[in-house]
Amino acid sequence: MFGYAMRRVLSAVPVALIAVTACFFILRLAPGGPFDGERALPPDTLANLRAHYSLDQPLITQYFLYIGRLLQGDFGPSMVYSDFTVAEMLAIGLPFTLTLGLCAFIVGTTVGLVGGALSAVNQNKWPDYVLVMLVMVGLVIPNFLMAALLQLVFAVYLHWVPAGGYTGSFLQLILPITVLSLPHAGRTARLMRGSMIEVLGTNYVRTARSKGLGTRLILARHAIKPALLPVVSYLGPGLSYLLTGSLVVEQVFALPGIGKYFISAALNRDYGLVLGTTILYMFIILAVNLLVDILYAWLDPKVRYH
C-alpha cells in the first residue's frame, strides 16, 4: 500500500507543474493588467509599479521568479490589496471555504448513499420513484438558481433562516450547505442506486438469499462494500467540485470565503491572488484524489498492482 501511495504522489508532481505553468501563462497573456483602469496612471507611476512587481521583466523571467518563490511557500504579493500578501488572504478565507465544502460533502455523501441504497432495495416501487425524482431536481437546477429559490422561500417568506452574510451563527450556513450538497447528493445517489442494483443481481447475493439470509444481513455482509467502489471513484471529483463550486455560492450568500477574494481578483487582474487561489485549489484537488485512490485500493486490492 505504501509503494502504491508513493507512486501516486510522484505521478502528481508533473501534473502540478504543468497546471501551474498553464495558469501562469494564460493569465499573463490575457488582455488587460492589474493597473489598467478607467483612469490611466501617470507613466512614471506605472513604470515604478511594474518594476516593483517585476512585470517589466521578460515573461519567462517572471515565470522562473514565481516558481522560485512558490517552491519556498511564497505566493507573492497581492497587486490590489497592498496591505496583505496572497498567503495571508488565503489563510483568512480558506478555513471557511473548507468548512463549508466539507460540511456539504458529508451531508451530500450521507444522503446520497442512504437514498441510493433505499432506492435500489425498493426498485420500481414508490420510494424508488420519489428518490429518482428528487435526484433529478438536485441535478438539473444550477447552484445560483437553487440559492435564489431557497433564499426566497426560507428567508424572505418563511423567515426561518438568514438570507446571507455571516456573523458566526450556524443558521447562516444552512442554506449554503444545502445548495452545495444537493447536486452532490444526487450524483452519489444515482451511482449508489445503479451499483447496488447490479450487486444485488449477482450470483453470490442470490446464493445468500437462497440460504435464508435477511435483507439487512445481505446488505451488510455482501452488498455494501462492492457497491461502494463506483461511488468512491466519484468522491474525489465530487469533493473537488464542492470546494470549487463554493466560489459562486459564497458570492451569492455574501460569505467570507476564498470566493469573495477570487472573483474580485479576477475582475481586477490581480495576478498574484488569482494564481495563488488557483494553485491552492489544484493542490487540494490532487490531495483529495490521492486519498480517494488509496481508499479505492483498500476496497479493491487488485488496484494496487496496476
Please give a structural write-up.
The protein has helices at residues 2-29, 43-52, 59-71, 86-121, 126-140, 143-157, 171-200, 203-210, 215-252, 258-268, 271-299. It is built from eleven helices and no strands. The protein is 76% helix and 0% strand. With 306 residues, it is an all-alpha fold.
Structural features:
0% strand; single chain; 76% helix; mainly alpha; flat; 306 residues
Query: Percent range for helical residues?
Result: over 70%
The backbone outline, from C-alpha atoms, is flat
Indicate the low-confidence ranges by residue numbers. Answer: none
DSSP summary, beta strand count: 0
Tell me what portion of residues adopts beta-strand conformation.
under 5%
Summarize the structure.
This protein is mainly α.
Task: Give the SSE layout.
Blueprint: H1 2-29, H2 43-52, H3 59-71, H4 86-121, H5 126-140, H6 143-157, H7 171-200, H8 203-210, H9 215-252, H10 258-268, H11 271-299
